[in-house]
Amino acid sequence: MSLRHGLLGLLAEGPASGYDLARRFSETLGTIWPAQHPKIYAELGRLAADGLVEVESEGPRRRKAYRITDAGLAEVKHWLSEVDVDHTMRLQPLLRSLFFWLMDADDLQRHLAAEARFYTEIAEQYRQYAERKDRGEFGNSPQTQSMRVAIEAGVRLYSALADWAEWAQTVPPAKPAKSTKPAKSTKPARAAKPTTR
Amino acid sequence: MSLRHGLLGLLAEGPASGYDLARRFSETLGTIWPAQHPKIYAELGRLAADGLVEVESEGPRRRKAYRITDAGLAEVKHWLSEVDVDHTMRLQPLLRSLFFWLMDADDLQRHLAAEARFYTEIAEQYRQYAERKDRGEFGNSPQTQSMRVAIEAGVRLYSALADWAEWAQTVPPAKPAKSTKPAKSTKPARAAKPTTR
DNA sequence: GATGGACATGTCCTAAGGGACATATGATCG
DNA sequence: CGATCATATGTCCCTTAGGACATGTCCATC
Q1: Is A142 on the interface with B (CB under 8 A)?
Q2: How far off is chain A from B40, nearest CA to CA, in Å?
Q3: Tens digits of residue pLDDT in B84-94
Q4: What is the CATH number of domain B2-82?
Q5: Fold type of domain A2-80
Q6: Where is this region: Disordered (chains A, B) (predicted)?
Q7: Domain positions in chain B
């Protein structure tokens, strides 16, 4: 249920419409926390029903801007300070890496090179963003300060992944256990063992 | 739909039961790709219906071991080489970091210290696992070679996060825009601007 | 031989994610 | 003035995730 608190956190900066919030998610937050507009509108409705946000104004084309209420602010602060962090990571690239041994050496090298390029590029984007902030381009409000901290995480994470993908290209492909030794051959599906225990 | 391919990948190493697979997810894979047993049994059923796996043997207590079929192996290889990688990351800790400005300085320091401890510990676990592999404790099969590559990613990712959390503790908390300058005060909810554009 | 515990598989139900589609409205420009 | 585009909000529906609960089975041990 982090989307709920994500929305509250964004609204703590000031009123915004569902459209605004959806843009922020798709433009900058998308890499660390994806959220499509259907979910956002639905959640805003629920938040309003629960009294955590309220409609601040109705704008030009049906635009509704929401403002966080005191209850909403209390809720997001409570979440930040009292609720356990969920450290779950769901990284498909890492899951795939477990199965690299199923790939041709060529395909694998291509794959890793593409991954390295991808991560390097994202890391670079975050780095530039960080620089602009450090040059004072976005002011020095508490919000942008926190943004700076988040960006730093992006830089470090994606740099680490880029380095990893580079490094992985240098790992020699393990031969499918052929000529290394006489190889006690019959061990016919090692993971099988119908372990009763 | 990565669980499907995750299961196929694991079964490519050799036959296993739903219980075995669930344990592998909860013990070692849980950090990078969580999966509970209800999903696993359901997906195994679907995989069997689609002919990508088949029941290899029935063991002691209703135990059913599944074996990957040729079609299943082809499917997972196709996924690895041809299907685009999903780079989506969903990191609650990073989402939270955007809202650090809403926290007391004390709470934030406590939070960051706990985060640093957590990431350091996980990184250390991965590091030890990598060492054991490098000492040859797990042999040198292609599978364990790939495992080694995945572990390396874990080491680097969690080290990066640990360093980040340490670094973040040194970032001075931005004062809520008070005494820094005369401060053109009236700019009443900067994010509001009912942008019609 | 009864009982408790680890093994093993499964269902049920609700919530969350997300693609596809629908619709209203104001702005722009020929 | 009519067409078209970007803005803005929403619904529908299917899939995936995951907590809670239920059941069966073999083993140890008292």
Answers
A1: yes
A2: 16
A3: 999 999 999 99
A4: 1.10.10.10
A5: Arc Repressor Mutant, subunit A (1.10.10)
A6: 171-197
A7: 2-82, 92-170
